[in-house]
């Protein structure tokens, strides 16, 4: 995968810079890549590939889940109820029992013996792809993933505007210089736009 090679080369060229998050589209959504990122202590912010659906067995309890990894309780997606750092697991609650209003609207809803409702815990190491440490339903994940279009704009500038895609350069050092010059140009454009405000 090109992302693994790019991250490895980045780490080799800049060993003192540590990466904390990886923003990726659904093309990076595979178990091997999640496991590799976990070994490097990089948090994945990756959109789920909608083609991968179905059932998953976590431990001894088989659950059904939505395409975005949310557990299902009696046909309803469960509500994300936070991440426990000391126990390293996510907590999910029945959506109807979680809301007082919905509980009153559905008095015959019984998914658990407790009025608190059904609770499902998912551990990150059970399924790194569906339950990363930054949950997809959380505000943190949404805020981080909203930066993804900026990455696409830079890729488009490099590949199309600065003609890296159609370059006739052959040596790796010349390609690196081409990329370096493109990044200098991107920064200069940003400076001009910032000072023009």
TrEMBL record:
Q: Where is the Transposase IS4-like domain?
A: 18-183
What is the recorded name of this protein?
Transposase
Q: Which organism is it from?
A: Fundicoccus culcitae
Higher taxonomy: Bacteria, Bacillati, Bacillota, Bacilli, Lactobacillales
